Amino acid sequence: MFSRLTVFCVGLLAAGSVFADSLLETDQLLCAPGYVTHCSSGGDCELGPPENYNLPEFVRIDLQNPALRTTEASGVDQSTPIEHVIRANGTIYLQGVESGRAYSIVIVEATGDLSFTVVSDGETASAFGACTPA
């Protein structure tokens, strides 16, 4: 299973667009996870709620000082650097690598809809979620 970093990163996903909000002209985002799909190279995949993967309820994304951070309410103080931030055509693209894992995040600014994936040797995790201005 993925480490705490991967679990943290995957926690950004999957809340659904019902709670999404416009992110135009904001650099501080609050994102909420929903269901996560975790697969191994052996072909085994499972789908489950974030709590099955020890994920936080909310994660902050700071685009000015690029990092993913847990919220105080999560009870866990974690931060992951964002190596690449691109804002183009109404979409925010984020990428990073840490502890042998790579992640990519795509956020639609007009709606707050979020798609996320984490990849390591022999494992992937992906999900969808929603973000709102923090």
Explain the overall architecture.
This protein has 134 residues and is mostly beta strands. The chain has a single domain, classed as Lipocalin. Strands 1, 2, 3, 4, 5, 6, 7, 8, 9 and 10 form a ten-stranded antiparallel sheet that branches. The N terminus is likely disordered.
Write the layout of secondary structure elements.
Blueprint: H1 4-10, E1 28-40, E2 45-48, E3 59-62, E4 67-70, E5 79-81, E6 84-88, E7 91-98, E8 101-108, E9 113-120, E10 123-133
Antiparallel strand pairs: 1-2, 1-3, 1-10, 3-4, 4-5, 6-7, 7-8, 8-9, 9-10
Question: Characteristics of this structure?
Answer:
ten-stranded antiparallel β-sheet, 134 residues, Lipocalin, disordered N terminus, mainly beta, globular, 51% strand
Question: Which structural category do the helix and sheet elements fall into?
Answer: mainly beta
Estimate percent helicity.
under 10%
CATH architecture: Beta Barrel
Order of helices and strands: HEEEEEEEEEE
Overall pLDDT score: 83
The total strand number stands at: 10
Principal-axis shape equals: globular
What share of residues are in beta strands? over 45%
Q: Enter the CATH topology name.
A: Lipocalin
Rounded to the nearest angstrom, the distance between the terminal CA atoms is 30 Å
**According to CATH, what is the class?**
Mainly Beta
Largest sheet composition: 10 strands, antiparallel
Stretches with pLDDT under 50, minimum 5 residues = 3-8, 10-19
Number of domains: 1
Count of DSSP H/I helices: 1
Radius of gyration based on Cα positions: 14 Å
